[in-house]
């Protein structure tokens, strides 16, 4: 069973319909983590003044230039389902509205919930675009044949490795998996995820099996190394007394408190926890040896629904979000990576090209059901 089938079978009423009331519906599964820390910090950063800043960043550039190939009628509204939080993405979308003169109807929610909603709606979906927080949800919609191919030249600034091979979606920001650690508490830093099963790390490593980013990592591990390898590694981690947490931020907080020495998280959580606490924390980010699956880079991304009749406007929004100025602002505000080659890395982190991330087909991360079954089998869920 793939991710798309799993989402539909496990759908539940949606609890987040903010800003778009034109869709009724039930939705679905899964906890793709949106910690309160992230919400509070991003909400603080993106005030009305923040919106003005975005406008200044892009100067007087005009992104809207629509062809008449869709319709002789002027496009006045576009509907987008957004798995990125309102606090994060709304200022950028508002700026595009001003530049283009087009109103955006935005439905906010969990990426997996919105993906399942699109699958349920099928050819009747009112959405023109789907903006997801992770590649797995994009893969689910793509696998169902509900995305249109994005024209060559759209999103051209983005590194091709973060664009689906069939051009059904384009990456917007990168999130690197790292081991966060407490300097001085670990004698020898690990070179591989396999090192974490050794006696030297017994009881010192934190993981979050119920978290979507950890599950995406395990999915990649299964795809790259095989299910037997992944099962053996998970069992070895459990036998080595890996400490279980609900989310990434809790792992970072535990490292700062000295409860554990190291944990598997996304790279931006050290910054996020520090900002939320209002002080420096005793936590640093580390990367495994180049090519190790522990260095997985997942992405947020966007695709155009095959049923949309507003493709030119949708393409213009994608060009806006993938422009150098907006990509730089993403990095500044959230410490996520820009996906433009050669772009500046988040503060105190290596650039994306030097991380040594493994070559992973991000579309394959949609098969989360198998991963969750495996985590349940070994007793981690």
UniProtKB/TrEMBL annotation:
* Keyword terms of this UniProt record: Membrane, Signal, Transmembrane, Transmembrane helix
Report the transmembrane regions from the record: 46-66
Keyword Transmembrane helix assigned to the entry: answer is yes
Q: Does the keyword Hydrolase apply?
A: no
The record's annotation in CDD domains points to: PBP2_Fbp
List the GO terms this entry assigns under cellular component, sorted alphabetically: outer membrane-bounded periplasmic space
Family, according to the entry, reads as follows: Belongs to the bacterial solute-binding protein 1 family.
Q: What is this protein called?
A: ABC-type Fe3+ transport system, periplasmic component
What is the organism of origin for this protein?
freshwater metagenome
């Amino acid at each position: 069973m793939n991710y798309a089938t799993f989402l539909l079978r496990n759908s539940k009423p949606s609890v987040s319909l903010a800003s778009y009331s034109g869709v009724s519906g039930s939705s679905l599964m899964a906890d793709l983590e949106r910690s309160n820390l992230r919400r509070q910090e991003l909400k603080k950063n993106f005030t009305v003044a923040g919106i003005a800043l975005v406008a200044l960043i892009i100067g007087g550039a005009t992104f809207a230039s629509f062809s008449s190939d869709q319709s002789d009628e002027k496009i006045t509204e576009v509907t987008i389902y957004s798995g990125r939080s309102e606090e994060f993405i709304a200022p950028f979308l508002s700026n595009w509205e001003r530049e283009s003169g087009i109103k955006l109807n935005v439905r906010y929610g969990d990426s997996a919930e919105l993906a399942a909603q699109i699958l349920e709606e099928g050819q009747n979906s009112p959405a023109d675009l789907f903006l997801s927080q992770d590649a797995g949800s994009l893969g689910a919609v793509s696998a169902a044949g509900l995305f249109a191919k994005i024209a060559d030249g759209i999103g051209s600034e983005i590194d091709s490795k973060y664009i689906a091979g069939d051009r059904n979606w384009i990456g917007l920001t990168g999130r690197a998996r790292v081991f966060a650690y407490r300097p001085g508490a670990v004698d020898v830093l690990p070179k591989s995820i396999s090192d974490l099963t050794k006696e030297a790390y017994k009881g010192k490593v934190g993981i979050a099996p119920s978290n979507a980013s950890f599950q995406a990592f395990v999915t990649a591990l299964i795809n790259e190394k095989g299910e037997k390898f992944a099962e053996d590694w998970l069992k070895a981690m459990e036998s080595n007394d890996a400490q279980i947490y609900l989310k990434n931020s809790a792992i970072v907080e535990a490292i700062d408190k000295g409860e554990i020495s190291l944990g598997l998280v996304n790279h931006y959580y050290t910054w996020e926890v520090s900002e939320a606490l209002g002080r420096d924390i005793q936590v640093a980010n580390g990367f495994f040896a180049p090519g190790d699956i522990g260095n997985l880079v997942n992405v947020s991304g966007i695709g155009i629904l095959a049923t949309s009749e507003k493709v030119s406007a949708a393409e213009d929004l994608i060009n806006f979000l993938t422009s150098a100025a907006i990509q730089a602002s993403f990095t500044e505000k959230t410490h996520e990576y820009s996906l433009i080659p050669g772009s500046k890395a988040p503060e105190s982190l290596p650039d994306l090209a030097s991380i040594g991330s493994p070559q992973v087909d991000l579309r394959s991360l949609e098969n989360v059901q198998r991963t969750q079954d495996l985590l349940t089998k070994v007793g981690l869920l």
